[in-house]
Amino acid sequence: MRYTFVCLAAPLRVPLDKRSDNAFPHARRKPLYFVKSARELQAVPQVMGIVPEIQQAFTIANQTNLSPEELEDLERREIFIQDMRGAMTKAVNQGIQQGIQQGAKDAQIEIAQRLLNILDVETISQTTGLSIEEIQSLRTAEGE
């Protein structure tokens, strides 16, 4: 059996939602309410859900009621979600890199096109970083 300990330090500064003051009249009683009521609650009360520490404590309390198979399945899903977030971040970064590279290539081509009627192919190649073949194909395309 796995045990998880949650420490709720007092006094915990909990912002009160003015509309629900009747349900929880004293902010300092919220952690105590959590400790007393966690097992019976089916959902996190809205006024308590705004406190990250209590939200995390509810999540841990829910996990302790899971069977080992359910807990393993939950952990696999959490790992999958983290893997997908990592893959998305990597894909976005790769897309940004490709965009930067394509933008630099487009700038090289634009500069080369401006220089076609002014300079020779070798000088344009040295100036822009494009190959002589690329510049010659630009010259051919411009002539058409």
Would you mind describing this structure in some detail?
This protein has helices at 30-37, 46-49, 52-64, 68-115, 121-128, 132-143. Helix 4 packs antiparallel against helix 5. It is an all-alpha fold and 144 residues long. The protein contains 6 helices and no strands. The chain is 65% helix and 0% strand. The chain has 2 domains: 18-64, no CATH class; 68-143.
Tell me what portion of residues adopts beta-strand conformation.
under 5%
Radius of gyration: 31 Å
For the report, how would you describe the main beta sheet? none
Poorly predicted ranges: 5-27
Described by the principal axes of the CA atoms, the overall outline is rod-shaped
Helix and strand sequence? HHHHHH
| SSE class | mainly alpha
Total helices: the number is 6
Approximate helicity band = 55-70%
What's this, in brief?
The protein contains six helices and no strands.
Features:
about 140 residues; single chain; about 65% helix; rod-shaped; mainly alpha; 2 domains
Helix-strand layout with pairing:
Blueprint: H1 30-37, H2 46-49, H3 52-64, H4 68-115, H5 121-128, H6 132-143
Helix pairs in contact: 4-5
